[in-house]
């Protein structure tokens, strides 16, 4: 009898997972472009410099970029949690003063929500495909 660990067979990626990954990637890139263009060209705030605003808002988007581009399920999962910042920011902009600010806020909120949903479902499907589990195995209790 071999004491070698049993390797689970990795199934081929299905078309739904690919679609979810593409939606997440498009939402991510569109959100990055929206925030960059909004704060580089359209916002004129005399109190707070543009560069600081862009660093604060675009900085967190840079961390998960490699894992998202390579389709890592774990990165998609935690990047979805990161998008809560952009959902809140979009809602704050959506109740703003000007019409363009409201429009940008709603678009930002929708892009962040689409990323959250598509990346969560992608991470779930990819985890199932790879045979990963987030559940801890229960330890057997020793009887005395």
From TrEMBL:
The chain crosses the membrane at residues 20-41, 47-65, 77-97, 103-123. Keywords: Membrane, Transmembrane, Transmembrane helix. This is DUF2069 domain-containing protein.
């Amino acid at each position: 009898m071999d004491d070698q660990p049993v390797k689970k067979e990795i199934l081929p990626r299905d078309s739904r997972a690919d679609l979810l990954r593409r939606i997440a990637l498009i939402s991510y890139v569109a959100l990055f472009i929206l925030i960059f263009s909004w704060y580089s060209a359209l916002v004129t705030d005399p109190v707070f410099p543009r560069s600081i605003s862009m660093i604060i808002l675009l900085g967190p988007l840079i961390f998960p970029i490699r894992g998202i581009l390579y389709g890592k399920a774990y990165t998609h999962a935690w990047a979805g949690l990161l998008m809560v910042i952009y959902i809140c920011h979009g809602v704050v902009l959506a109740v703003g003063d000007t019409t363009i600010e409201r429009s940008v806020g709603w678009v930002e909120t929708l892009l962040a929500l689409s990323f959250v949903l598509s990346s969560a479902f992608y991470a779930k499907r990819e985890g199932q495909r790879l045979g990963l589990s987030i559940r801890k195995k229960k330890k057997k209790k020793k009887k005395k």
